[in-house]
Design goal:
This protein is α/β, with parallel strands linked by helices and about 550 residues long. It is about 25% helix and about 20% strand. It folds into three domains: about 110 residues, Elongation Factor Tu (Ef-tu), domain 3 (Beta Barrel), CATH 2.40.30; about 300 residues, P-loop containing nucleotide triphosphate hydrolases (Rossmann fold, 3-Layer(aba) Sandwich), CATH 3.40.50; about 90 residues, no CATH class. It contains 15 helices and 23 strands. Strands 12-11-18-10-19-20-9-21-22-23 form a ten-stranded mixed sheet, with helices on both faces. Strands 1-2-5-4-3-6 form a six-stranded antiparallel β-barrel. A hairpin with a 7-residue loop joins strand 22 and strand 23. The radius of gyration is 29 Å and the shape is elongated.
């Protein structure tokens, strides 16, 4: 052990799980410091006890009243200032759970002792997840992320302050560049849904705002301070664009528009995803949805991506919805298309929702663009970004549900679990809310419960974990918390945080996260460096292989 900084005090109970230490004169301990001590048993065996400082207090010893502080400072009353720290035990070696004895010396745990205290020495494959305040790396056990012993990451925090998406991309960067995956990193992919702004459209551009201090922090974490090397970007086509021009403004090159053909919509059973708004399970119009879906499956495919239904050619989504509306409302076709014993009120509820989806998704389902296969979301790059920020919520749910289902089915067919697919989805509470049921929620539940066996890892983020389906949160091995609202921090979903850390979560600054992982009984307070990749057009430097810096059309404008 290093030089002692404290001793176990005898005025507070010491237990194997928690004890107090008095800080030596001229020394200090702060929150999150890692400490170590040794206890010698009667038979001579030495037990190494490690812990983390969870609370620190200072007080006047000898004072009885609050006003005594003035007399003490004037030298009228004798008193001493004492500092004490509460330590939460993290590890015993060997596992003999005895309390430390009063008077025992306590030292800061450094280097190898710090690794033992935080179980880093037992992690065969360590993934850097950030840094301490002193720029020492923190790690997570890769086995709890890649599906072997656990999987999935859940991130909570206030929008705009908690930097949830930034930390999610930092984890991806660490996964790809740290070497933790070994040869598997070549075929490991990430699918990111960009739901707000165009911040994630420049992941392949270096960040010109990155300074030398931040580069040193990357080196301290064992990571390269560089942008993502292989990025594919997909965006929805602009409304009314016959050529399906991508609907983005800050970036003009390297973006491909995406949509689905009417043929795919009918034969891949995509209709239910138009109704993915977590309706009540008792809503009877869902029976109509599945009856109509069965009829669409029987349509004939046309060469241009359209379909032929009962002798009628259909090439636009609006025409398709009009045809479905006629069929379910017509007396002769109602039995076949809507189903037996379906009332008029139920059919009208179905029609209202179907027609209400037209203006939101008609640019996403079409048969008027040549070579539609070029406009499919393909996971050919290491990172694939699907931009949703210009879409309405209903269209966002449709895109997320269809894209995740297809990716999940592709992994099922491949049967490969070692090559990972990381799915990053913000605003998780919109897609898998606690109440209700929907097709997209079922897909995300399937990913959370079966994804680890296929190598599909969900990195979900939301402002409030209390509004997300419990089973998705429960299946997440790594739980990350950024800045929280005080009311949200009091919810039972954050029971894994000690009381002090719940309080701290309400004042965390951007770039600081609380990370809980299965092997460590205490969440880590983790800082992560400024992004090495551009997070907006004004930060984007030239592409490493050449290319111009994109112009920011909003530069110079104010709110």
């Amino acid at each position: 052990m290093d030089q002692p900084v404290a001793r176990v005090i005898g005025t507070e109970d010491a237990t194997p799980l928690e004890f107090w230490v008095g800080v030596a004169p001229g020394q200090y301990l702060q929150l999150d410091d890692v400490v170590a001590l040794r206890r010698v048993l009667p038979d001579g065996e030495i037990v190494h006890v490690y812990g983390m400082v969870s609370q620190v207090r200072a007080r006047h010893e000898g004072a009885r009243f609050d006003s005594d502080v003035f007399l003490i400072e004037d030298g009228v009353l004798p008193a001493e200032v004492s500092e004490a720290a509460q330590v939460t035990a993290t590890r015993f070696e060997p596992e003999i759970f005895v309390p430390p004895r009063p008077g025992q010396e306590v030292a800061r745990a450094e280097e190898d002792e710090r690794d033992r205290a935080l179980f880093f020495d037992q992690m065969a494959e360590r993934l850097p997840i950030g840094l301490s305040r002193t720029n020492q790396p923190f790690f997570a056990n890769l086995e709890f992320l890649d599906g072997r012993r656990g999987a999935h990451v859940n991130i909570s925090g206030i929008s705009g302050v908690a930097t949830k998406t930034t930390y999610a991309t930092f984890l991806l960067h660490s996964l790809f560049t740290s070497g933790a995956l070994g040869a598997r990193s070549v075929n490991t992919k990430a699918l990111i849904f960009n739901v707000k702004g165009e911040d994630l459209l420049f992941l392949d551009h270096p960040n010109v705002a990155l300074d030398d201090v931040q580069r040193d922090r990357y080196r301290a974490a064992g990571l390269a301070a560089e942008a993502f090397r292989s990025v594919g970007i997909f965006a929805p086509p602009r409304s009314g664009s016959a050529a399906a021009v991508p609907d983005v403004s800050a970036r003009s090159e390297g973006v491909t528009s995406f949509f689905w053909t009417l043929d795919e919509f009918c034969h891949d059973d995509l209709l239910p995803f138009l109704f993915a708004d977590a309706e009540d399970d008792r809503a009877q119009y869902t029976m109509v949805v599945y009856n109509v879906m069965a009829q669409l499956r029987r349509s004939a495919s046309l060469d241009d991506g359209g379909v032929q239904i009962e002798g009628e050619g259909v090439r636009t989504f609006r025409d398709l919805t009009d045809l479905i509306t006629r069929k379910v409302q017509d007396e002769e076709d109602r039995y076949t298309w809507a189903g037996p014993a379906i009332g008029t009120g139920t059919i009208n509820a179905f029609v209202r929702r179907l027609q209400g989806a037209v203006r939101h998704v008609e640019r996403l389902i079409r048969a008027d663009v040549p070579n539609p296969e070029r406009h499919r979301v393909r996971l050919e790059h290491q990172v694939t970004v699907v931009d949703l920020h210009n879409l309405a919520d209903r269209a966002k749910r449709f895109v997320v549900g269809v894209t995740v289902r297809r990716a999940f089915e592709d992994k099922e067919r491949a049967g490969q679990s070692r090559e990972l697919l990381m799915v990053v989805l913000d605003e998780l509470n919109k897609y898998a809310p606690r109440e209700g049921s929907s097709p997209i929620k079922e897909i995300l539940l399937d990913v959370a419960e079966r994804g680890r066996s296929l190598g599909v890892i969900l990195v979900g983020a939301q402002q409030t974990a209390s509004e997300v389906e419990r089973r998705i949160i429960a299946n997440s091995s790594l739980r990350v918390v950024g800045r929280l609202d005080s009311a949200e921090a009091a919810r039972e979903e954050y029971g894994f945080l000690p009381t002090v850390q719940r309080q701290r979560s309400t004042i965390l600054k951007p770039g600081t996260m609380l990370v809980s992982q299965p092997e460590l009984p205490v969440p880590l307070v983790v800082e992560f460096p400024f992004p090495a990749w551009a997070t907006r057009a004004s930060e984007a430097g030239p592409l490493p292989g050449g290319g111009d810096q994109p112009e920011d059309p909003f530069e110079g404008l104010t709110d």
